[in-house]
Protein 1
Amino acid sequence: MKKRFYVNGQWTSSERYAELHSPYTQEVIAEIPQATREEVELAINVAHHARKEMASLTAYERAAILEHLTQLFIDNRQKAAEIISLEAAKPLKYALGEIDRTIETYKFAAEEAKRITGELIPMDAAKNGADRFGYTIEQPIGVIAAITPFNFPQNLVAHKVGPAIAAGNTVVLKPASQTPLSALFLAELIDQTALPKGAFNVVTGSGRTVGDALVESDKVKMITFTGSAAVGKGIRDKAGLKKVALELGSNAGLIIDRNVDLSKIVPKCVMGAFSNQGQVCISLQRTYVMDELFDEFVEQFTTMTRQLVIGSPMDESTDVSAMINSGEQDRALSWVQEAVEHGAEIIAGGTTENGVFLPTILTNVSTSSKVSCQEVFAPIVIVNRITSIQEGIAAINDSIYGLQAGIFTNDIKTAFNASKELDVGGVIINDIPTYRVDQMPYGGVKESGTGKEGLKYTIHEMTETKLVVWNNQ
Ligand code: NAP
């Protein structure tokens, strides 16, 4: 029951512990060590010390470690998924899906470890470049602090730990307070590989204490953070000259053009809006449907939403379970209330049942309502009517966020224009904005963050480009 940190390849106790509760049953599921600043500094020192050994590994060795880790996740798929369901209330079918993606993410990291290359520089293209030979090499940057959110406790950690190892860096991981068990299980798996001791460390505890110690340390060379915009901005303000990658929130939008086949689209929208209780950074939050299809879309969408199975996250048939905590649930309820006060209509849900926030559909929502202009991060989706695609594009762009957007259309010109005009990091044509595979470049504009994930892209951010020039005169 009492968990320990993983530092320098050893399991160490702490002086202070906090109870971890299941979001669904509220039962105590573990006691989690709460790191002091000194304990975090110890983990940083260990990672700092291990960086030379880590940097000396060959690409072959780093890839082999990641391949071994991939295999360990394949062997422990069910157990890893059950841990996610237990601590995050992610329904088991989605938790299994997350582990399948985690397996792919580490596999891609293993492959990319073998493809880290520099480039030849045509030195003699400059007047003073004759008889010079130049090239770049990509070198590891050293200690990386990874700070991760609760909503994908294995795969979003994999997006940081995988490329960090692939590039030859060392890591101190601080998982979200609600999902430390997945991070500690990862440590158990990594412990079985040939990764040098001290190259991967996990410290748990409060975001402020652990986060500040990581962000303020001179030995940490990069912060890779996934979480809310508010915390991300605070990290950037304190990080000084460190590299900072920020994967933040969004209020993802979708446009549905006229003349599309709703029978293919509606099931995707239901999944995009309600999987993991809408607690996904690219969850479908705002849907803009062309006038001609609006009524039919709402009808089909509502019918299918009402068929979702509500219940325990550990039950394989469950589609929707509890939100991460009651405070978040209360916030979501108050946002629905505000939208209604602004004139919105509740088509489904809008309330709780046995501690679960029911999948909620709102129409006629004002752009000034929080459920529209802020990140809702709850099983709530807006469906608004539009009379032109341009109106839909303008509505999606009218946001402080810009992570991904989707458009369903059969018109090539419409799709092409949307791909140019939508102010987001990724435009998904003929699918929901929630679509992601793990090797694609992924990251937002505006308050959705800076930097790209997707193994190749992250590795680039986790290395320093060094130039070498030879003089042959
Ligand atoms: P969060 O509250 O911002 O927490 C994220 C992480 O930051 C947690 O580990 C948290 O620790 C830590 N933290 C809190 N305060 C900190 C501080 N002052 N300094 C350093 N670290 C600190 O986010 P969340 O509620 O876990 O996750 C939901 C958010 O993540 C949403 O906004 C969602 O959109 C975003 N997200 C973005 C992506 C993406 O790829 N763009 C993917 C998934 C999620 P504690 O848990 O101990 O507070």
Protein 2
Amino acid sequence: MLDRLKELQAEAVAEISKTMDLKQLNDLRVKYLGKKGPIQEVMKNMKDMAREGRKAAGQISNEVKSAISDQIEAKKVELEALAIAEQLANETLDVTLPGRQQFIGVSHPLQAVTNELEELFITMGYTIEEGPEVEWDHYNFELLNLPKGHPARDMQDSFYITEESLLRTHTSPVQVRVLEAAKGQGPIKIICPGKVYRRDDDDATHSHQFSQIEGLVIGADITMADLKGTLLELARKMFGEDREIRLRPSFFPFTEPSVEVDVTCSKCSGSGCNICKGTGWIEILGAGMVHPNVLEMSGFDPKAYQGFAFGIGAERIAMLKYGIEDIRNFYTNDLRFIHQFK
Ligand code: FA5
């Protein structure tokens, strides 16, 4: 029996020293030291032995079990240390490697100018409104004092979708929608930025799709002086003190009187070049006092309320501000162009 115990110890030690896996090691613990293990089996035969022999056999079996157990513990420490070393090796960081470059985008210059204009008007107490790009003829023209067949419709060559709907040619229909929603009750102070579409031939300063920012202010005592003050504030904030602006009498069926506002050309500063077509000026917006017919058609009493409206060409503002010579640069998605405005 004692020989058998020594044999089992040798077997266990051989198996333990060969294993390289913590789970297998645990299986070996169960196999040799568990209640159904071979050592326990051998011990069962002790009951037939004489008292002295039983005592000695018990002592030896305990020694064998504790030797196996010590062996398992030592192996466990060794395997755990190996596992940690392997994990550390896998997680090693090479701090000398160059970092990954982060690509940081920039605002498109047109978006930057739109944001700047929005902020300017918000500080002046305006709120922002939006309207649909596919618009009814009714809002785009008729309620703006441009009935069907009116010759001034030719000022804005249009992309019609059906007889009654089109891609809006300006942001002015939003004025009418806001007036209608107010149900004859002022005051109103809004801007509306958005895309507009015209069948214009593309050149350095014209595009078939461009952006406008509409403004509308309605109150009991709004005058042309308020409009002029607002436009001067706009020009001063966007272009600085050294730029000149001029207001030219103009015509829009939805404003009376009407003006067009020009700013000195960014390239030639007024002497005349290809950008400004030799005039020294670039037109940036149209404006005027809201026509009484427009107020009336949208449910406002023109005797109680009056106001002004304007429509800014956002590209023209961005071109002047950044000295961009061709409007088509805004739409080509050339990152080299966009990244100049970091
Ligand atoms: C209008 O669109 C009027 N709705 C503006 C207005 C609003 C007047 C409220 C009175 C009251 P106009 O067609 O002039 O007006 O266009 C306004 C601005 O849009 C122009 O001053 C110009 O800066 C810009 N613009 C016009 N056509 C183009 C184009 N094809 N490409 C780029 N910008 C353009």
